[in-house]
């Protein structure tokens, strides 16, 4: 079965860099699909941050002003997200997900991890 699980720090200070890891089981991230990071601020909708496809091609949401970076480690079957210079506006629940396309077709999700940025 396919499972995704997020891990990383739950609390950061402003200006720090957030690093989250998604561990995938049941399928290789090098096989197919778009491996995606999404977040949800309480009371707001989902916001796609970045994805990396099975070849390793990356795409980013320009709304994050170049602060995001996505990468993968195929030997560990993981993909990671880094968000630099975080602020309280980055407080959200962060999810990793598999987008099968075309368009938004998220077949599998992690359970999400709460990240709080507090001054």
Q: Radius of gyration in whole Å, from Cα? A: 13 Å
**Number of β-strand runs:** 11
Give the low-confidence spans: none
Task: Report the end-to-end length measured between terminal Cα atoms.
Answer: 40 Å
The helix tally amounts to: 0
Q: What is the general shape?
A: globular
- Category by helix and strand content: mainly beta
Residue fraction in strands: over 45%
Share of helical residues? under 10%
Mean pLDDT: 97
SSE topology string: EEEEEEEEEEE
Q: Main sheet? A: 7 strands, mixed
Structural description of this entry:
The radius of gyration is 13 Å and the shape is globular. With 119 residues, the chain is an all-beta fold. 0% of the residues lie in helices and 52% in strands. The strands form 2 sheets. Strands 2, 4, 5, 6, 9, 10 and 11 form a 7-stranded mixed β-sheet that branches. The protein contains no helices and 11 strands.
Core attributes:
four-stranded antiparallel β-sheet; 0% helix; 119 residues; mainly beta; globular
Nutshell version of this structure?
This protein has about 120 residues and is mainly β. The protein has strands at about 5, 10, 20-25, 35-40, 45-55, 60, 70-75, 80-85, 90-100, 105-110, 115. About 0% of the residues lie in helices and about 50% in strands.
What's the topology here?
Blueprint: E1 3-7, E2 11-12, E3 18-25, E4 34-40, E5 46-53, E6 58-60, E7 68-73, E8 78-83, E9 92-99, E10 106-109, E11 113-117
Parallel strand pairs: 2-11
Antiparallel strand pairs: 1-3, 3-8, 4-5, 4-9, 5-6, 7-8, 9-10, 9-11
């Amino acid at each position: 079965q396919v499972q995704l699980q997020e891990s990383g720090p739950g609390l950061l200070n402003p200006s720090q860099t957030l690093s989250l890891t998604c561990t995938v089981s049941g399928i290789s991230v090098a096989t197919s699909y778009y491996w995606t990071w999404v977040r949800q601020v309480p009371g707001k909708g989902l916001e796609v941050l970045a994805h990396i496809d099975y070849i390793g091609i990356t795409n980013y949401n320009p709304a994050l002003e170049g602060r995001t970076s996505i990468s993968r480690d195929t030997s560990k079957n993981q993909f990671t997200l880094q968000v630099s210079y975080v602020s309280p506006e980055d407080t959200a629940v962060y999810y990793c997900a598999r987008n099968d396309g075309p368009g938004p077709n998220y077949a599998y999700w992690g359970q999400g991890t709460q990240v709080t940025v507090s001054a």
